[in-house]
Amino acid sequence: MSPRRLLGLVRWYLRELTGESAYDRYLERHRLAHPGAPALPRREFERMRTDRADAHPRTRCC
Amino acid sequence: MTIPGSTRPRPGWRSVLTWTAVSIAGAAAWGMIALVRGEEISAFWLVVAALGSYAIGYRFYALFIARKVLQVDDTRATPAERLDDAVDYQPTDRRVLLGHHFAAIAGAGPLVGPVLAAQMGYLPGTMWIIIGAIFAGAVQDMVVLFISMRRNGKSLGQMARDEIGPFGGAAALIGVFSIMIIILAVLALVVVNALAQSPWGTFSIAMTIPIALLMGFYLRTIRPGRVLETSLIGVVLLVLAIVAGGWVQSSSWADAFTLTPQTLVFCLVAYGFVAAVLPVWMLLAPRDYLSTFMKIGTIALLAVGVLIVSPTLQTDAVSEFALSGLGPVFSGELFPFVFITIACGALSGFHALIASGTTPKMIQKESQVRMIGYGAMLMESFVAVMALIAACILDPGLYFAMNAPAGVLGTTVESASQAVANLGFTITPQDLQAAADAVGEETLVARTGGAPTLAVGMSEILSSVFGGEGLKAFWYHFAIMFEALFILTTVDAGTRVGRFMLQDTLGNVWKPLGRVGWKPGLWLTSALVVLAWGYFLYAGVNDPLGGINQLFPLFGIANQLLAAIALTVATTVLVKSGRLKWAWVTAVPLAWVAVVTLTASWQKVFSSDPRIGFFAQRERYADALAQGEVLAPAKDLDQMRTVVTNSTVDGVLAAFFALLVVIIILNAALVCWRAVRSPEPLPSSEAPYVESRLLVTAGARASTEDDGEDGAEARP
């Protein structure tokens, strides 16, 4: 595997792991479900995504 | 994965050869560890034994469980596919999900327990960590993940209610809540013990709060969603905070950050409350990113360090304390107390809460429960092995000078050196002071709780790879930071989860309390949860007998009892779904953990030895108190009263936990008996079969050599 490819893989993994890619996935999904309708801007989307965690706490283990 | 009944090709000669080699390497390493005596053993053998055993366990036992016992079926749509809402339920690449799941299950537990258990030598701990994970811990995680996935991601509490009954369900719920309180208290105690009288540590941990706030605002307002760059900034600031801690220590600010354990308790309780009522984006979310990166980065660093340095173990294979039960770190004999002290890393009930939380809602294909449930636990087990190594490469004299209770060691290097000599080990006062100076601490005497010991061990290993002697103090505080960081994340997240459980329960009594958006209710329930763990934390800090010595067994018992509940639910599901033949897969670990925890609770409650039995201890101190006498290590009548109160509370709690589990197991046994006697199968609570349409390729932008089965993923 070339270093470039490896770097790409690491970047893909970290983006997926941290949820940074969630917005891209949302855009794609939105385009398929509601073609033509304006999608949420990133700021709004991230705000909703984080605020949801307020009502749905995730346990962290010891 | 194959559908049951279909034929599989016979394994090729290369596969046979590879696995034979893995088996031989693993067996040879076990032979070295277990049989060689009187010579110095390299930690390298522990690593080989662990990795070899994991590979075999994953390749054969986990595959057997997936195919024969659970009968995973990749033609069946998972809840992630059927209910995909892009929020809770969404099919997630299995490697990404493995990362999520691992980050959620791994915390300070597997780092602390093995360090304490090192007082019995390296062999008992190593064996339990590796064998326990393969046959109990990883099995529990995988089976719970599977049955929750088949039920659309139901929680452990809900499954207990559905499968065992309302009574068992209620007992499980109370169990989960009280266990969480104890766990939070003990973890917070570890932080307090690591930071007390250490301006360097206190300053750098305190700095994580502004760093997290900064990250939170940055992510919220300046660069929404750019988690990677935010985390990078955070990690850089974090390292800076560790370095700056050294400057603070030698500056006039040092006094401001030199806090007593009592002050730290108030700080932590206040922090816990504020953190739990603030919105997630401000503190918890950025802290979580930081601790995930630190966790994965530091563990990888340590693994590399251990492999390169391959340090020599200084501890005996099995120490005399294993048999006498008189060890200063925690009392009691090898059986059952090693299996209580090392919970996370071998078998941890808390994982069942995570395996029945978000993870089952994100699995793409049923067969992936093996990689995610079983694989992640093997990774955690490996973390525990490394923590054990870090503790066992220390000179035993130093180890006991750090880990025996302050009441035994006194406060000076001279008194500690004398006390260690009484235990049968040697360390000169000069060496003890030199060890403290090397890591930039005032003293290492009675730095109990496991974190400082691990940090000294890690600084030994890491400084001999990166930076030499000069960086020892940096690595020590790096290790302290790394542990404190994710303990504080756990405390924050745990307080929130506890608050939700409390709101849920109290909402049945008085409606408004159940509303999550109602601020006074939120403050009240958060305060209740914080005060609950704060009480045990405060008691632990002030206990003359040593808070860790007293509370850690309770923590282990609680965590293992949760495992007993999880394994009971799993066994009941297997029996009810007509898999009695395979029920031993979870029933044997259940029997083991039930015997271990009930024996431990029994001893903790009924033992007539005041070092072990809480009530015997209470009686001894209460009698002396009635005579107006003061018993060492208590120094005055107030401390005598503290011992009496604490041992009463701890004893009642140990009895209560044991009672809960006995109730659940008996209730489940009744349900299983009915299921076996019933001529027709009992109604299933599984979601009905829907055919899967999801095609899983090797991953979104995946590597090509990933064949999706066995092989590469076996290595943690």
TrEMBL record, chain A:
Pfam families in the cross-refs: Sel_put (PF04328)
Superkingdom of origin organism: Bacteria
Span list, region Disordered: 41-62
Name of the molecule in the record: YbdD/YjiX family protein
From TrEMBL, chain B:
One GO CC term, this protein: plasma membrane
Entry keyword annotation includes Transferase: no
Membrane topology: Multi-pass membrane protein
Primary residence: membrane
Domain of life: Bacteria
Subcellular location: Cell membrane
TM ranges: 16-36, 42-61, 102-122, 128-149, 170-194, 200-219, 231-250, 262-284, 296-314, 334-355, 376-402, 473-491, 521-539, 551-575, 582-602, 652-673
Domain CstA N-terminal: 43-600
Family membership: Belongs to the peptide transporter carbon starvation (CstA) (TC 2.A.114) family.
Protein name: Carbon starvation protein A
Lineage of the organism: Bacteria, Bacillati, Actinomycetota, Actinomycetes, Glycomycetales
